[in-house]
Specification:
This protein has 165 residues and is of the alpha+beta class. The chain has one helix spanning 13-67; strands at residues 70-73, 80-81, 83-88, 91-98, 101-106, 109-112, 118-128, 136-145, 155-163. The chain has one domain. The chain contains one helix and nine strands, in the order αβββββββββ. The radius of gyration is 30 Å and the shape is rod-shaped. It starts with 12 loop residues before the first helix and ends with a strand.
Length: 165
Amino acid sequence: MTGKFKIKKGFTLVEILLYMALLSIFLITLVDILVSVLDVQLESQATSAVDIDSRFISSRLNYDILRASAITTPANLGDTANSLVATIGGVSYTYSLSGGNLVLNDSSGSKNLNSSESTIASISFQKLGSAGGKETIHVVYTLESETLRASGKESRTIDTVFGRR
């Protein structure tokens, strides 16, 4: 028998379906991993923004209160206010909340102390200490991230005390 056999090249329908099923499983797994990585990045970004801003604000308040010659607002021991006015080198420094930002007003103008990645939900300053002594300021503020995560906004309440020397 000297017949010619034709060899068909290509894939059978079963092989194509099997490859497509394996490729679909691979792509679904890859997309799931990518979504998880993006969620972790958002969590990290929100936490980082709140951490960095809270450290900066606390450091700046501590720096200014330490070198203040007087705290005029809140006025009396035990008083609580939503702004802080300190006199440093004859210049009035005012910390106040405006539109979700902690704003510092001094002789050089206004500056937002938190970044655009976070907002200040609330802030209060309470003057503590003893009569005739150096004032101590109890500060409580709540920072919220602007980054929306699956679990909501990152929020942290800072409750600390700064004293004059």
